[in-house]
Design the sequence.
């Protein structure tokens, strides 16, 4: 049957270039592998997670495994990697996700690690076991610093590895710099959990600089984490909406809270910026201005919201316009034609009936008393 999710036909995971010793079917249970940017981290079936964790640990030669920041969670963390996130690849291996058509999505350490907030220079795995659930769920951590485009018409999703903080400057470069990195594109089927990835090829010419400007932007989503607990943040959501709208220079009605989760004293929120009014998509200039502000680490909030961080913004095209209004009009016209068509013969019958003379009639007597009509006598 059809799946309500964006499904990827994931076949293999490679750690440091070496494939995990797993049956590919481990990633195909129930709904298969799901891409869900609304989920913060990634989750794998038990067997896949165990193999992934062991492969990563095997590549860590100088790091020490430590306890996680929250004792109520069994996080797998390592210290000694330093505070420079850009240098994580010197200590942690790169990871490749291989799809059914052989295409790969390469994950740098920032795409599967999160920072230990109690120990400086320590990081924890952002991929967790999914318990007895056979679903593989790839959350927002997997697409950090990745421009994700959703092609609903062709049931594909495109990944372009980039530095989101610098993307605004790149989009406005003319001409673009020589030899830019090629985007990594993979096709996703969002209706069939067992469908294969359809082939897709890298575009010719310098990628990425014009494409985001040329597409129709239906909405822009992003995450905002705040060091405020749930009970304090909930009553201030309207105030937060106002601040975000003000910082992004959009109407308050365009900003909507899409998701809300808490962990301890921290809150993670997902937001969406929609087109103004009843428009289906934003003007490119408006969309690029919003993206530029997000890339510059807007919005700037009041100190009363605690420390905060904005990350993982995503552009989505406008949803397909439903055909119901048009079909509804056709249905109404058809009903009118049917009523008119049926009323014509009924009206004609009524008219004919009214044209007939009103002849008197009386009760018919018994047969033997009926008199025969007399013949007309000739005129004299």
Sequence:
């Amino acid at each position: 049957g059809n799946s309500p999710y964006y499904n990827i036909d994931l076949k293999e995971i490679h750690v440091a270039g070496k494939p995990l010793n797993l049956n590919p079917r481990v990633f195909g249970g129930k709904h298969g592998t799901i891409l869900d940017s609304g989920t913060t981290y990634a989750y794998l079936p038990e067997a896949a997670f165990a193999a992934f964790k062991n492969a990563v640990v095997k590549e860590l030669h100088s790091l020490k495994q430590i306890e996680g920041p929250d004792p109520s969670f069994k996080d797998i963390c390592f210290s000694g990697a330093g505070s420079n996130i850009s240098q994580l690849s010197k200590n942690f291996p790169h990871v490749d996700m291989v799809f059914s058509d052989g295409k790969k999505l390469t994950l740098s350490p920032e795409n599967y690690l999160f920072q230990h907030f109690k120990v400086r220079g320590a990081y924890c795995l952002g991929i967790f076991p999914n318990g007895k659930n056979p679903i593989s769920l790839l959350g927002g951590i997997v697409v950090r610093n990745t421009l994700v485009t959703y092609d609903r018409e062709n049931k594909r999703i495109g990944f372009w590895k980039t530095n989101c903080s610098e993307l605004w400057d790149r989009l406005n470069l003319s001409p673009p710099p020589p030899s830019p990195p090629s985007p990594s594109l993979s096709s996703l089927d969002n209706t069939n959990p067992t469908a294969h990835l359809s082939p897709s090829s890298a575009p010719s010419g310098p990628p990425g600089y014009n494409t985001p400007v040329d597409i129709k932007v239906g909405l822009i989503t992003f995450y905002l984490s705040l060091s405020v607990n749930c009970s304090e943040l909930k009553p201030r959501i309207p105030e937060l909406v106002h601040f975000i709208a003000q910082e992004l220079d959009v109407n308050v009605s365009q900003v909507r809270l899409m998701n809300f989760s808490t962990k301890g004293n921290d809150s993670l929120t997902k937001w969406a910026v929609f087109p103004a009014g009843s428009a289906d998509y934003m003007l490119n200039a408006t969309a690029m201005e919003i993206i530029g502000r997000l890339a510059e680490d807007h919005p700037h909030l009041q100190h009363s919201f605690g420390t905060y961080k904005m990350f993982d913004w995503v552009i989505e095209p406008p949803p397909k316009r439903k055909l119901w209004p048009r079909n509804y009009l056709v249905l109404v016209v058809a009903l009118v034609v049917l009523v008119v068509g049926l009323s014509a013969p009924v009206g004609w019958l009524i008219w004919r009936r009214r044209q007939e003379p009103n002849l008197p009639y009386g009760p018919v007597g018994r047969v033997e008393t009926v008199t025969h009509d007399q013949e007309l006598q000739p005129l004299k």
